[in-house]
Structure formats: structure tokens, C-alpha cells
Write a sequence for this structure.
């Protein structure tokens, strides 16, 4: 049975902070933003299927995405290529998605990540249930969890 | 000491390589389980394989199973390094023959700790 459930916002924030502090510790913490950002240049998304179904996306500005690529690969931003950014964001969303999945009912499996320059629209049967608007180095980073539109399935929220 | 790093992410291979090179390891890299198996078949003899789970072509679980089926690789230590953190997956990987299991995100210290448990840590990471 698939359970329509959503991670608690605090848990999602903890996961993102842990990933950032582990692989992107450059002295700039990831902080809550004052409001939503529409500065969408890169999107990395991963799908969870099984007992829990969802799409988890990380959306970043160009500067934030380049910063992620350069920091994770330990290279200069000036030499950080589009391919570098794409690879780093794929791994970033893989780790965020895997850790969010671990908070939810299982067993479920992760897809391989999808990374695009621009927006990656979720399928029409998914709706956003959690959104974190954050700032890293003053640049927007948005984490969104989409789950299937609720029907007659069981509904639950982790706390 | 030689570490074979198996991950479809070049970024993650680079992160792990930086850490284990600081510990004195030489490294080789493979993008998936099949490429890693090909390296072993070609004669590479790593002391340890650090293995992602979700990869195209051949995943890490299948790689572990295939390595453990062949006695000539019985001395190769296998450690999963993955975001797969469900208990059932960990049990499955260990039952298939993985010696250790490290969940991403990990710190350099957590890799050192695992390598020490496996008797493979050559030195501490310099401060």
C-alpha cells in the first residue's frame, strides 16, 4: 500500500542543514529566506517510489548552483563547468532525497537524479506539500517535496 | 593500500578520493558496478571497494553479489557508501557480503572510523 505522507518541515530543514554542513561547509551557513524566491536557474529532482511516493527537488540560482559545484568538487568557480554543476546537483539531490526518504514509511526506492537548467515540472498527479526557502551565500536555494494528490489512500504526517 | 571508488557521480568520487588519498590510499574509479567488475577482471586488486547503491547499468548491490560469488576476490573488502538507509537495505547489503555500510552524508572522520573498524586506516587525516 502506498501511504500519502509528508515529512515534517523541521525534519526537512534538518536534513538540508546536515547535507550542507557536511559537503558545503565553506563558512556560509544555509539560512531561512525572508520569502519565496522565483530565481529558478537550476533544478535537481529525484523521485521516490514504493510505500512512500514523492518527488524531491532542489532549486537554485545560477550563482548558488555554481557555488555548489565548485565547493563539492573543490575547484575554482571560474573553472566550474555546466557538466560539473549538473553532476554536483545530481548528487546533492540524491543525498537530500535519500535522507528524506529515510524519514518516511518504507520500503521505497530512489530514482536516479534528474538535473535541468530551468524548472523541472513534476507530473500532474503530484502537488507540493513542503517548501523550504533558504539562502546560501545570499543566493536562493529552494527545497520542495511533492506527493501524489490525496485520494482515498491513507494520509499521515510525520512530526 | 588501494581503494576502488564506485559511484556514478563524479562529484562523489572526487569527495571520497580526496578523503582516502589523505589517508595514504591510491585510488581508482568506476562509474558503475559493471565498470568496476571490468577493472577487477582486468587485474586491479584493490584493498577496498567503496560502493554506491543506485547506479545505472549495474547497481552496488549487484556488484557486491557478483564479487562475493567469485573466490578470487574473497580478500577484497567491500563497503557500501550510499543514501540508502532503510534497515532492510542495510541488512540486504551486509547479507550479500558487504563488510561495512556508510550512509551519505558522511564526514571524513566517519570514513576513517569505518576504515579503522576494517583494519585499513593507514593514518589520520591531517588537521
Amino acid at each position: 500500500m502506498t501511504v500519502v505522507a509528508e515529512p515534517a518541515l523541521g525534519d526537512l530543514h534538518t536534513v538540508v542543514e546536515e547535507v550542507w554542513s557536511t559537503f558545503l561547509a565553506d563558512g556560509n551557513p544555509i539560512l531561512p529566506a525572508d520569502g519565496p524566491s522565483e530565481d529558478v536557474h537550476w533544478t535537481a529532482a529525484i523521485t521516490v517510489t514504493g510505500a512512500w511516493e514523492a518527488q524531491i527537488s532542489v532549486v537554485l540560482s545560477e550563482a548558488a548552483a555554481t557555488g555548489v559545484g565548485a565547493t563539492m568538487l573543490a575547484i575554482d568557480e571560474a573553472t566550474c563547468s555546466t557538466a560539473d554543476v549538473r553532476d554536483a546537483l545530481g548528487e546533492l539531490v540524491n543525498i537530500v532525497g535519500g535522507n528524506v526518504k529515510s524519514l518516511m514509511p518504507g520500503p521505497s526506492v530512489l530514482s536516479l537524479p534528474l538535473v535541468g537548467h530551468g524548472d523541472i515540472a513534476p507530473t500532474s498527479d503530484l502537488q507540493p506539500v513542503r517548501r523550504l526557502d533558504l539562502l546560501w551565500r545570499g543566493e536562493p536555494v529552494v527545497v520542495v517535496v511533492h506527493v501524489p494528490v490525496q485520494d482515498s489512500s491513507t494520509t499521515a504526517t510525520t512530526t | 593500500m588501494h581503494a576502488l571508488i564506485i559511484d556514478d557521480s563524479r562529484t562523489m568520487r572526487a569527495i571520497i578520493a580526496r578523503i582516502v588519498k589523505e589517508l595514504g590510499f591510491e585510488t581508482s574509479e568506476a562509474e558503475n558496478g559493471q565498470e568496476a567488475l571490468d577493472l577487477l577482471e582486468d587485474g586491479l586488486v584493490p584493498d577496498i571497494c567503496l560502493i554506491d547503491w543506485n547506479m545505472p547499468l549495474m547497481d552496488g548491490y549487484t556488484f557486491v553479489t557478483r564479487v562475493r560469488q567469485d573466490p578470487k576476490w574473497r580478500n577484497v573488502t567491500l563497503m557500501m557508501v550510499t543514501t540508502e538507509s532503510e534497515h532492510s537495505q542495510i541488512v540486504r547489503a551486509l547479507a550479500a557480503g558487504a563488510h561495512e555500510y556508510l550512509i551519505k552524508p558522511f564526514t571524513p572522520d566517519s570514513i576513517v572510523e569505518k576504515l579503522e573498524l576494517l583494519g585499513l586506516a593507514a593514518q589520520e587525516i591531517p588537521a
